[in-house]
């Protein structure tokens, strides 16, 4: 008998025992292919690439331990109950037993994904590291039109908008935003939360069209898990700043599609502060996913009214601003707690300090309402509910994107929206000469590219370096032919000196008043 002889029917060894094809896995679990895909997405199971593919290169392989992991999960039994429930409803409708069908439809089997979040992310930092795709997908669905009869439910879009607004409110309140970049795909953001850099992409504020070449069933499976994950992350972050979660929104503001404004008003009031010990917080953390779902059900019931539903859908379809900035301004108010911010957070907090912005109706409003308060600025807009109108005398900058203006105020500067993004990336107040209305602005440089590593430094990047050195009173030698760079640096030095003189004057005034 050979040394490695294995009789037929004995236990398999090697790759044949470690890996299983997708067809055999579906038959082993006794579920459909769609349910198998959904289980793999929710459990975080992905295909493997064994060194030796026993049954051919044209098949998809999974690890046998992962399939056994899915087989023992209680979620698979819930999906089987849902399948049986659908058959009962179909049978009742076929027998014309409408009462039984209605009773079954009103009591469908439900499940929660709270346990899976704790299972896949034992530590909170693990969830933060895996938050990039979550935020991108949630912001993508938040920008879709909320229309009944489409492939995406209206309540799912409202839930995504609420979660994205809660995340933006926290980032703005803690001044955690670090980088931003406008691209063809959308607007990239990068924030630093508890030492972890999180980057996500938001689509432009345009009318989105649902195409037929996208498998929305797979995307909705990912979204189902990401909604629960982001709800847990927001819960933890809100409690870190002593704010209760989930927030209780004003129904009137919520009906006007001003969820972020209502959310931030809740945070700014004293009723949103956390009361209780750490044990109760632990219980709330375990039940936060369920509380999120219950709050969604309450919002859906409230939106069932005809007038409120029409108003909500109309504003979402026309992409009217949903995150009104009034609450964001409340978020950036000085906290009475001990200042524990690091140097970078303090720098971001004071970038737009003592500056007041006014947004015209043609600029990307939602993005600017998120960025400007995150860096210490005060912002208003053209529309109902704004903190101040266009004729307010203390406005320092008006963001416009039209070549001509009906009326011009000499006490403020009119700049293009790119100026705000470039100032954020450079961490200094750039001169506005190159961003005036009607001019072609300088190149919009990406902060995610390392020019030294790429071996090419753009000309405008060198100019920004000189401006940064001038802001730190470290004047670099300038070439004699670059008059534009010299003028920009001179303007930066004059601006720095004027700011220092204004601060000294304020201190002297305070001493005399005392």
Question: How large is the share of residues in beta strands?
Answer: 5-15%
The Cα radius of gyration reads: 28 Å
| Silhouette | globular
Strand line-up across the major sheet: 7-6-8-9
Terminus-to-terminus distance: 103 Å
Task: Give the helices and strands, then pairings.
Elements: H1 15-18, E1 19-21, H2 22-29, H3 33-43, E2 61-63, H4 64-71, H5 74-94, H6 98-106, H7 114-120, H8 124-129, H9 132-142, H10 154-174, E3 177-182, E4 187-193, E5 196-202, H11 216-240, H12 251-255, H13 259-268, H14 278-302, H15 306-317, H16 326-331, H17 343-349, E6 356-359, H18 365-374, E7 378-381, E8 397-399, E9 413-415, H19 418-426, H20 451-454, H21 459-471, H22 483-513
Parallel strand pairs: 6-7, 6-8, 8-9
Antiparallel strand pairs: 1-2, 3-4, 4-5
Helix pairs in contact: 3-11, 5-6, 9-10, 9-11, 10-11, 10-13, 10-18, 11-14, 21-22
């Amino acid at each position: 008998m050979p040394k490695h002889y294995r009789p037929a029917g004995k236990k398999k060894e090697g790759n044949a025992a470690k890996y299983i094809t997708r067809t055999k896995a579906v038959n082993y679990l006794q579920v459909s292919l769609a349910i198998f895909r959904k289980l793999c997405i929710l459990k975080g199971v992905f295909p493997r690439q064994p060194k030796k593919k026993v049954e051919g290169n044209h098949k998809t392989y999974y690890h046998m331990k992962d399939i056994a992991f899915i087989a023992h999960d209680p979620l698979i039994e819930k999906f089987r109950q849902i399948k049986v429930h659908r058959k009962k409803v179909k049978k009742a409708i076929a027998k014309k037993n409408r009462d039984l069908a209605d009773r079954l439809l009103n009591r469908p089997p439900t499940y929660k994904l709270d346990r899976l979040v704790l299972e896949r992310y034992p530590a909170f930092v693990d969830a933060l590291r895996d938050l990039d795709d979550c935020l991108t997908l949630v912001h993508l669905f938040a920008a879709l039109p909320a229309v009944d009869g489409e492939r995406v439910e209206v309540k799912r879009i409202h839930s995504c908008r609420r979660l994205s607004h809660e995340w933006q409110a926290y980032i703005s309140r803690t001044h955690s935003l670090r980088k931003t970049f406008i691209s063809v795909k959308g607007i990239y953001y990068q924030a630093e939360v508890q030492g972890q850099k999180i980057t996500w992409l938001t689509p432009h504020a345009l009318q989105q069209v649902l195409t037929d070449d996208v498998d929305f069933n797979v995307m909705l499976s990912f979204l189902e898990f990401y909604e629960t994950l982001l709800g847990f992350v927001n819960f933890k972050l809100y409690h870190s700043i002593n704010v209760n979660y989930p927030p209780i929104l004003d129904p009137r503001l919520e009906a006007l599609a001003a969820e972020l404004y209502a959310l931030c008003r809740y945070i700014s009031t004293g009723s949103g502060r956390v009361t209780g010990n750490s044990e109760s917080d632990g219980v709330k953390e375990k039940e936060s996913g369920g509380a999120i779902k219950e709050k969604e059900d309450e919002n859906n019931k409230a939106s069932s009214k005809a007038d409120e539903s029409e108003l909500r859908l109309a504003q979402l379809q026309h992409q009217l601003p949903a995150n009104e900035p009034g609450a964001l301004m409340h978020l950036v108010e000085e906290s009475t707690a001990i200042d524990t911010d690091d140097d970078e957070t303090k720098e971001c907090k004071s970038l737009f300090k003592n500056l007041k912005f006014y947004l015209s109706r043609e600029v990307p409003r939602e993005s600017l309402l998120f960025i400007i308060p995150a860096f210490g600025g005060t912002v208003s807009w053209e529309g109902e509910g704004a903190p101040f109108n266009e004729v307010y005398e203390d406005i320092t900058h008006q963001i416009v994107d039209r070549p001509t203006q009906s009326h011009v105020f000499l006490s403020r500067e009119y700049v293009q929206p790119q100026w705000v993004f470039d100032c954020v990336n450079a961490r200094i107040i750039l001169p506005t000469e190159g961003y005036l209305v009607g001019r072609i602005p300088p190149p919009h440089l990406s902060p995610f590219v390392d020019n030294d590593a790429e071996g090419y430094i753009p000309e405008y990047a060198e100019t920004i370096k000189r401006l940064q050195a001038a802001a730190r009173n470290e004047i670099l030698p300038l070439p004699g032919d670059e008059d534009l760079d010299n003028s920009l640096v001179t303007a930066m030095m004059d601006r720095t000196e004027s700011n220092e003189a204004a601060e000294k004057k304020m201190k002297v005034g305070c001493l005399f008043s005392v």
